[in-house]
Amino acid sequence: MPAAPTRCGHFTYQMTAKKRYLVEGAKLVLPDRVVDGWLRIDSSRISSIGFEQPSLESEDEVLDAGDLTIYPGFIDVHIHGADGIDTMEASAEELSRASVWLAAQGVTGWMPTLVPGPVEEYQRAVAAIEEAHSISEGARVLGVHYEGPFVNAAQCGALRSQFFRTYAVVDNIDDLPVLRRFSGKHLMTVAPEVTGGIELIAELTRRGWIVSIGHTRADFDVLDQARSVGARHMTHFMNAMAPLHHRSPGPVGWGLLNDVVTCDVIADGIHLDPRTLQILMKIKGAQRLVLISDAIAAAGLGDGVYHIWNESITVKGGRTSNQHGSIAGSVISMLDAVRLMSSLGVAEVDLARISSTNPARLLEIENECGSIEEGKRADLVALDDAGQVRFTMIGGEVVYS
After folding, report:
1. In sequence order, which residues have a C-beta less than 8 Å from that of residue 113 and are 6 or more positions away?
2. Cβ(54)–Cβ(38) under 8 Å?
């Protein structure tokens, strides 16, 4: 049997062909509590969880995770790139490199997110994402997120409004080149008030797509219609949507009122004030919030000026700004978002919900991953007391340590 790795501050791991591991000595963030315990991982799955001294079996390779806290791996459903790689331009190999960078940030699954662009850009980007879906070496490429193009130009944010479009009922979705379909998950951000928006949401839902409401100025009646035909989520809540007003509550008021609606948030302290994040935690609760990074290719590169989406985007002090002065995505990772929420007093169980369980539920893969439970994939991230990633495990293999 291989010797156990050293403990805590000197955690080491040497990749082997073995598929059965015993992870011991850690704090485990389970769906309902945090406990000291161990995990046995067999053929990519969590086969058993225990809390007493484990019995060592001959097939076990021991990973000593003493003094670490193990969370379900983070899932980022809205990310445009990182480490110099832009999802609109990247090859499959570059997306795989981004996956490796993300794994170092504790991310085990992500949805490359596309901004509106010319048809040929969509076609090339989705073809690369489809290939990366099979070859990714780090965080799993789970599918594609289309942020638009069926959104409201009055709430365009940093998106390129010249590529926005509407939907005609006579359109055959199979013939729309901007909606190329492949084997992964499909998520689309839609403003339901655009021409044909409700019909589009209904058709996407019928075909198994996940629809999120965003970049919108829709009123309650239109939003209720969108919900009735399948929309149950909201994209970067409070950003790029009509603000809450006491005489016109709009999409923000609608999202706050509806318990069946989940909302994702960019927890960078810039898109939303930290106190606003605390308000959302109090009103929506950990069951109905999802952390996202909304990161762009500049994430991980530091301050500077970057050419992204055919324009110059400046990063200064962690804040992005395009040529019009608008915030243009973020430069955080999911790990940064988790750290910020932790600093606001969010408990570990709730951190796991908003960073893993809820995004898995949104993507309808919660039976496969998103929580530490027997039978689920061993997609895990171990953090030390300083909130640093000590190792990331995907499908039962340590891909970063």
Report:
1. 78, 79, 80, 87, 144, 145, 146, 147, 294
2. yes
Residue 22 in 3-state DSSP?
strand
- pLDDT-based confidence at residue 11 (cuts at 50, 70, 90): very low
Query: How far apart are alpha carbons 80 and 148 in whole angstroms?
Result: 13
> Whole-angstrom Cα distance, residue 253 to residue 8?
46
Tens-place pLDDT, residues 330-341: 999 999 999 999
User: Which neighbouring-strand residues pair with 391?
Assistant: 382
Which has the closest alpha carbon to 25: 41, 40, 36?
36
DSSP 7: P
Per the DSSP assignment, residues forming a β-bridge with 62 are 22
Asked if the bond preceding 149 is cis, omega within 30° of 0, the reply is: yes
Contact (Cβ atoms closer than 8 angstroms) between residue 234 and residue 254: no
Between helix 119-135 and helix 92-104 the angle, nearest 10°, is 60
CA dist., res. 242 & res. 277, Å (int): 18
- Give me the catalytic one of 83, 86, 264, 294: 294
CA-CA-CA-CA dihedral for 137, 143, 147, 149, to nearest 10 = 120
Token pair listed for 113: 């997110």
pLDDT of residue 59: 77
Specify whether 273 is catalytic: no
Distance CA 34, CA 53 (A): 17
Task: Report the SS3 class of residue 34.
Answer: strand
pLDDT higher than 50, residue 3? no
> Which residues, 6 or more positions from 271, have their beta carbon under 8 angstroms from its beta carbon?
236, 239, 265, 294, 327, 330
The three-class DSSP label of residue 51 is: coil
Alpha helices (H) along 105-208: 119-135, 197-206
State the maximum Cα–Cα separation within the chain, in Å, rounded to a whole number: 69
Q: What is the rounded distance in angstroms from the CA atom of residue 135 to the CA atom of residue 94?
A: 11
Residue 46's SS3 state is strand
pLDDT digits (tens, 9 = 90+) for 206-216: 989 999 999 99
Reduced to 3 states (helix: H, G, I; strand: E, B; else coil), residue 320 is strand
Residue with tokens 């998950």: 185
